[in-house]
């Protein structure tokens, strides 16, 4: 028996057929324009100003005003209303700023008005030239004397009266940007955040550099890399998981305050807070430490909040207000875990005891070392209760191979993770600069790799050679740019990345 399509499948089929039909109609209009000697995609148009500039200069006008000012502007057609011999056109620039154009039979003539009626569709880019006026209703408008299609749209816009679904927003971001103000605002918010970060670093005399994305050894983080092959060098290469080891080489070379904002790639899962490709900020400061970097990170985030919200209280996409102000708490990882678990857990607690606790909670931990068990238990007991911005301090040594031993507490290292909105936003270290200890840590990582830990670091002889030339005591930090946008906007990671990777 033939299976009948479901309601949703039938609707999707109808929508597809409608798009195909509209495309055919628009292709015919394009052909008609070309046969009439009219460019459907002209290379240049006599634009004199922008839609926002028109609104800024003339937005105060009352109804039925005439300015005597003639301008040429362009925008995308978002709405057309024909009333006999007058057409009202809603134009929109790339930022979503609207402006009305009025095309009159009496002003442009019979032939031009007929072409407008026959050729112009929603989604077209349209140039109009004419006097700046206001309509009877007081709508700021262009009284059109000449017009040209600037770019003929062969596919229709989505239904402007219903929201795009998430899949469409992510897969066809260009449509999202055309029809949804929040999508446009997010792009501009991100740009403001990037400017703020760079301004803050400049105030602290940091230099921005770029380091390799293709590396012969992956390192700087515990993560599974993407692997590729260089035909030119006939060798295996890795997309970088972190810029850390190269930035530390820069510190060794005398660039004592250095940062980079660039792409990282980790061959791991994707969810609401993780993307295989993401933007990362890392910074290193000679003669700093993890407390220095915590102070800097708080300043970076709070300055970014001020850049986009005018203060430290940001408003998320759902209307919730989130306070990033004040001095952020610094919480002991072992202390907070002991409190929430109801029993004391220290760096000396053996892995067997921790494994029994994990088993009782049905927590699965791959390659269960002391450090991995502690961190998994902490995420179970403590992480869900973190709402306000919080630095979680002092981590197990075996999960932090690039971090200096704590100056006062045995078995832990001077590392913090910053949690904002309940997810990890940044991490900071007092950097391990002793090449002898660093070699020992790399050897331990190699042993974990041999046991099947795909995230374990490899021994990097060139990096060790750099350390052997002397790296000053330093602090370092790393922060995900996409996650910073999540903290400031309340959006998921796929919304903060302009073109995220999807299947």
From TrEMBL:
Coiled coil: none
Entry's localization field: Cytoplasm
Any Gene Ontology biological process: lysyl-tRNA aminoacylation
Predominant subcellular localization, coarse grouping: cytoplasm
Residues annotated for Mg(2+) 2 binding in this entry: 424
Residue ranges annotated for the Aminoacyl-transfer RNA synthetases class-II family profile domain, each copy included: 188-500
Subunit structure: Homodimer.
NCBIfam families: lysS_bact, PRK00484.1
Full protein name: Lysine--tRNA ligase
Native source organism of the sequence: Pontimonas salivibrio
Lineage: Bacteria, Bacillati, Actinomycetota, Actinomycetes, Micrococcales
Gene symbol of the encoding locus: lysS
